[in-house]
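hiii so um. not sure if this is the right channel but i have a protein structure encoded as tokens and i wanna go backwards to a sequence. like what aa goes where. can anyone help
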């Protein structure tokens, strides 16, 4: 029983081409990072309106929304409602917890001239473009910008 096992051989030229491609990609990325040449930056249009809000957990799973400028209660999000707002805030709160940041710094809700709305965590600088999640979800936050104090 003399069987010869032949291992597949990868052509040397193919290995060299793959290595050259990887080195080219790394060099390109390094050049862009160090020089900024070829880098794409998106700039937001002018802000029309912004509001700083604080969110706190209330009783029975409610979320209390406060205007950060005067600490006045703006809205109470009932338990089981406003799922999108809760998910976004949960993600941002997780980042704050990892950075050992409390709940005191406000979130900034901003509307721009083109109608785009963003939510920015003022403590981490993390910015979320709410329009990317659809108009119904954007409207959930846009509503908070319009409300004035006294909600219960």
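sure thing!! here u go:
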């Amino acid at each position: 029983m003399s069987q010869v096992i032949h291992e597949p051989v990868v052509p040397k030229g193919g290995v060299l081409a793959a290595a050259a491609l990887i080195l080219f990609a790394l060099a390109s990325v390094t050049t862009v990072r160090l020089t900024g040449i070829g880098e794409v930056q998106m700039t937001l249009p002018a802000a029309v309106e912004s509001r700083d809000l604080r969110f706190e957990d209330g009783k029975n799973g409610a979320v209390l929304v406060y205007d950060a400028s005067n600490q006045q209660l703006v809205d109470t999000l009932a338990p089981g409602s406003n799922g999108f707002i809760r998910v976004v805030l949960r993600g941002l709160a997780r980042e704050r917890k990892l950075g050992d940041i409390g709940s005191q710094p406000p979130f900034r809700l901003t509307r721009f001239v083109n109608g785009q709305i963003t939510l920015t965590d003022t403590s981490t600088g993390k910015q979320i473009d709410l329009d990317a999640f659809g108009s119904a979800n954007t409207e959930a936050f846009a509503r908070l910008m319009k409300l004035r104090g006294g909600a219960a």
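oh and The mean pLDDT is 86.
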